[in-house]
Amino acid sequence: MTVQIDAMDRKILQQLQEDASQSLDDIARKVGSSKTPVWNRIRKMREGGVIGQQTVILDPDALGLEACFFVLVRTNAHEADWQKKFLKALRSRPEVLEAHRLAGEIDYILKVRVKNARAYDEFYQALIKEVAIYNVTALLSMEEIKNTTMLPLD
């Protein structure tokens, strides 16, 4: 189902991205509409898959997860069975926040959040026990410069 998004929908989505806990009244006021049309548009966008899961954003540092690693994975196994096993291993690991299959020399990049380097090594050792990997390079993020979940709506 393809949902057509107009300027009002984009205003509503922008408000939801900024703070999804806002009341419908607040969103309606900010976008220059009333509550019922805003609710109907939100419902339509949920049903159409434009709006997915609603959640909260936690501060990893406050939770002791101070180390962020970007893990570059190269494999020499491109068979369906290997990929299925690898993807299952990634999906089962809560430390893996993001995983992307890439074009180019690197096959996958992972964003992994852990307490420290020792915790990363434990993650790494567990991963390579589950699935054979040709080459892994881990890059420690020294400083997070930008982190957002907000999509550009222009």
TrEMBL record:
GO terms for biological process, alphabetical: regulation of DNA-templated transcription; response to amino acid
GO MF, any single term: sequence-specific DNA binding
Q: Which CDD domains match?
A: HTH_ARSR
- InterPro entries per the record? ArsR-like_HTH, AsnC-type_HTH_dom, Dimeric_a/b-barrel, Tscrpt_reg_AsnC-like, Tscrpt_reg_AsnC/Lrp_C, Tscrpt_reg_HTH_AsnC-type_CS, WH-like_DNA-bd_sf, WH_DNA-bd_sf
Query: Which keywords appear in this protein's UniProt record, sorted alphabetically?
Result: DNA-binding, Transcription, Transcription regulation
| Cited SMART domains | HTH_ASNC (SM00344)
Domain named HTH asnC-type is located at 5-66
Task: Check the record and name the Pfam families matching this protein.
Answer: AsnC_trans_reg, HTH_AsnC-type
GO CC annotation: what is one?
A: cytosol
Annotated protein name in UniProt? Leucine-responsive regulatory protein
Q: Which organism is it from?
A: Aquimixticola soesokkakensis
